[in-house]
Amino acid sequence: MALAGAARAVEAVASRGQSADVALLGSGPGSERGAVRAIALGTLRWYLRLKPAIEPLLARPSETPAGVHALLVTAAHQVEYSRSAPELCVHTAVDAARVLELAGAAGLVNAVLRRFVRERAALFESVDATLAGRTAHPTWLAERITAAWPNRSPTILAANNQHPPMVLRVDLARGSTADYRSALHRASIESREIQWMPGAVLLDRPVSVSDLPGFAEGLVSVQDAGAQLAAGLLDAHRGMRVLDACAAPGGKTGHLIESLGEGADLTAVDIDPDRVGRIAGNLARLKRSVRLVVGDMRRPESFWDGRPFERILVDAPCSSTGVIRRHPDIKLLRRPADLSGFASLQLEILRAAAMMLAPGGRLVYSTCSVLPEENGELVSRVLGGEPALRVAPMPRGAQLAPGALDSGAGVQLLPGCEAGTDGFYYACLEKTTTGV
After folding, report:
1. pTM exceeds 0.85
2. N or C: lower Cβ tally within 10 Å for the chain?
3. What is the dihedral of CA 191, 197, 200, 206, to 10 degrees?
4. Which of 89, 246, 318, 368 is flagged as catalytic?
5. Domains of the chain (ranges, CATH numbers)
6. Residue 39: partners with Cβ closer than 8 Å, 6 or more residues away
7. pLDDT exceeds cutoff 70 at 29
């Protein structure tokens, strides 16, 4: 049953630190998979509000088996956030305890959830007394976001708990946005064109990619409109040597090669062979090819031939705090100490990329983070230590999303902003010929 499968996935994330994507692999038969995923992601989205509401109902919360705890929180999500009758949710949870073979837990699950149904208003009143509790964020992250964006933090935290939109990128080399929207309409899929981003289409309701006309043939890809900014900001042209660093899973790589055309001198590098395989798979669907390399961006000698690149996109590993609405497990998996590790890694990668950049060349640094220590503050550190680098002007005619904020050396998109995108940061840098 779907509730049991979702509880297994929630336990894998909350207790064993797996990502939701890994935890949901093979999550039940095909007919149940969508429901399992929806329940699990919904529970993870609200886990940090649900867990403290359930725990006062347990005699010894720390001694409750992880599987029972996960089932209780998952069932509480169904009581609070689904359209099912609370009594039905309780009965389903008792059945799920038996399916999960949680020895002797059916009675406990029944008793706790019946109390939760009766007392949940008072339980949530206590939880909701704090910003972190009512927005289901870890306290440290709610505090960091509030400190970074004091006037916008309520909007960001609320947006993190919304269901993400489904945005497409049309391959404009193979067809127009208008023609593709007509194909969607014929398939009974309604959509809107995103005016500020050529080729971007917003669906009224998400659908399976298998239902998208031309998806298997590579005519269209799923990509947030904020992520589609990267190709235009890089301002790459055919004949240039272009490097897509930390390229997996290849969404931006695909956009770049669609813009440049087949045969362009584009290299995509990632440190993980399996992730490079994912780039290859995505490019195969797009009917495109680039030079794929397994290499460590911190050690250019592991893959670089010494010839400078005129354009480099650094889509750096980061905290992913701008894409929580798509990956709610981030709220459970990320730790405050992770940020310094990401910043150190980003600094190494960015400095190495600067070394590989040709004089007069352009480098775009990108993250899906909303935290300054990974974005503007980090770029300022690089500029302070690299006299040959400076902030580059935006390319002529380049699009920026409505609501994009000037953030030191770059621009920041925030979840919940006017454009409706995920959270992204972009900085455009260039290498001077004089080094001053």
Report:
1. yes
2. C
3. -60
4. 368
5. 2-129 (1.10.940.10), 167-222 (3.30.70.1170), 229-431 (3.40.50.150)
6. 2, 3, 6, 74, 77, 78, 82
7. no
